[in-house]
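Comment on this:
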Amino acid sequence: MLWITATIVWCLLWAPVPSKSAVVEHYWTIEPVEYTIQGLFTRTAIGVNGQWPIPGIEATLGDTLVIHVTNKLNEPTSLHSHGLFQNGTTFYDGATMVTECGIPPNASFTYRIPLQQTGTYWVHSHYREQSTDGLRTSLIIHDPHEPYSYDGEMVLTMEDWFRDSADKLLRQLMNPDPHIRFHPFVPYGIIGGECAGKKVIYFNPGRTYRLRLLNIGSTFEFHFSIAGHTLRLIELDGVMVKERMTHGVTLGVGQRASVLVTALNTTQSNYEFHADMYTDIVQMPRYNPLNYTGLVQYSAGARVKSDGCGKWLCVNDLDLEPLDAEPMLEPDTFITLDAYSGVFSDQTFRHSFNNITYMRPQVPTALTAVTAGDHAYDPLIYGRQTNAYVLRHMDVVQVTIANHDYYSHPFHLHGHVFQVVEVGSLRGRSSKLAQDPPVKRDTVVIRGGRYAILRFRADNPGVWLSHCHMLHREMGLAMTFIEAPELLPRVPDMLRENCIAQGISTTGNALGGFGPVNSEDEEYPTPYADQFEAKDPPSGWKIISYAINAKDEDFDE
């Protein structure tokens, strides 16, 4: 009976969407673009069709999104539609050396994605840290039958923009010398595609607006509020929630939210909105937080009201309830991921899950899965450094992530949303359970010295990366779920051709051979033993990042 139930659920996922569908087609030439911010400095961004910031994409539930990409960079590229489940289209997920090889220079690739979700998402490169260098924009999928009513909507992307390239920032963060590694790097804010301080949004008295808020940056959190106005939170990461009043919204990298704001019944004043930036990965008291503002305009020339540094009081995720009221899942499979960092044998500072720092395989993991035959359920075939876990179809998976660093990590899961079941202190001094039904999202911020318990159902056959959504992903803080490998779809011909053009094998294990990978055949950096701690190791020794100095909080983040 279980397989019958699983088959019914799988068929329901593919049930036709009852709406008029269209093909939303874009032709993107990805190329370098020179961008000047507020006349302060000019640097090269990665733009599209000669533009940066990149215009957003809008579509409707039931449409098919088609993006024809031509790569005019001097390195490969890819596109990941952040938050889309990619049901049946795992090979269009865009994670290089996970689901594809990347698009080589002067080559093309077409992403063809049926849109089976509604909400606020974004598109960004998943090749190295090209997203940090600008290859990112919003993706809005409208619902023909929105559960909330409003008179208009606005998209406010929030981005941190650095003077230095992503490669230079990574070299700094991976330096083994802490004096270099933690040297402050101060970004500029870009709000709604404009330099912070320049953005104006227009309100008409008495009307209700949906503001779609997206942190599409790379390192800093954003805290959004509007002086003199109350926000009503209705969406987190594409999941509609029961309306909840709040003074502000905090967004880690990769997170999104929608709020309803009802305009005041007067035009006597205009009001500041805040999109303040904050990070805890470096110490820079003069610039942390960075208070950036824009203007809510009712009447040109009217006086401007401000609330000083903005309201940072936000509703707790665990107090929210999804509209679909999915009850708390009962887990079948349990996985614990301990996040640590330290200096490794290659003289770089790296991050890791369970002491494994992620490194890309020589064959994309999804191509290994579809060519492995009887070995597809053996994690060893995917290589130690991919940190692979193979999941049975329809199992409920509980993942406990423990953040042993003193700073925060925004953890993102491809292919799913997860229920956030519990958040607490690793020292055991405080914890908070979600209500039932629990909140769901695809990116969760876990503060330093804390843990989160997440649950999701393995109902989406594919290969899905899970990782920190800051620069730490490139420093090794990532792992892989291989979900029901026997049900993976056919590999697109164009994808294979792009692999072959780069000399990348499209068959075999992580090293391009056959059968499980012998760990002695893999070359990978290992953490230095004098950083280890023998207390409760998950598998051998643990890496000490730094002493956990986190204070207890009430979790109203």
